[in-house]
């Protein structure tokens, strides 16, 4: 049965009990998958998709996030993605991103699976890896080779791609790219340096397959004891099914979200709070 921090009788005592229950589940789990969505980046200042001020309340996904939209009007699609790239580059990982990165760096049985394309988890992992290197260096005289170990990046599965990468529509060459895109005309759009093809954001659009990443996500989710779900409406498949894989394999789900979601019923503990409000405390 779900324990819920917003239910009747959920005062400070209820919250403490639920937080302890969630902590215990995470501590004892034989592996943890953390699944995140746009809500984890909301307190960094980035819009979610389906909240009242979300992207999909202002735009239609079929105009901006489908292969057909890109074919029809690549300038419109690129200008929207470039605005999102600029917004993401202008903000910082928040305490929830950092707590997740610290948690993942401290255990070797944690996989972070995100639907976000904003790179904030990767940036948090880099910040945490740097501060752990500095701490290690301060605490002991370790060799430079040892210092470089433990960059949390390898453990992040980005299900929907990354807006700071481009992919060639002709030869599929992928490149990291951070500089602004000039989407004022078709002639100024970015082109592949290898074959001259038009570049697109390396993200997954509606109607496109998620490929190998989702297969890996499902396998991981079925092997762990707990799936911690933070800041997703769980409305988009197949990503929303990751937590159900854990449940089906006998594991538990802990959810952090100020609102109920279709997953809430299947959770062991539902912390009805914001990511920054509870994740650092939960993972400390
Ligand atoms: P949504 O916008 O659908 O959901 C955001 C969730 O975050 C909601 O359930 C909110 O209640 C919750 N939320 C809002 N603020 C929060 C906070 N401060 N802390 C914690 N949670 C908070 O975003 P996603 O679930 O990520 O895909 O959307 C999934 C996919 O739909 C996206 O990856 C994107 C979109 O279309 C593509 O573009 C392919």
H/E topology pattern: EHEHHHHHHEHHEEEEHEHEEH
Output the number of helix runs: 12
Question: Structural class given helices, strands, pairing?
Answer: alpha/beta
Q: What is the total tally of β strands? A: 10
**Spatial gap, N to C terminus:** 25 Å
Give the ligands present.
Answer: 2'-O-acetyl adenosine-5-diphosphoribose
Residues in helix, %: 40-55%
- Report low-confidence residues grouped into runs of 5 or more: 145-153
Instruction: Output the radius of gyration.
Output: 20 Å
Largest sheet: 7 strands, parallel
What's the shape? globular
Average pLDDT taken over every residue: 92
- Tell me what portion of residues adopts beta-strand conformation: 15-25%
Strands of the largest sheet, in order across it? 1-10-9-8-2-3-4
In short:
The chain is an alpha/beta fold and 284 residues long. The chain is 41% helix and 15% strand.
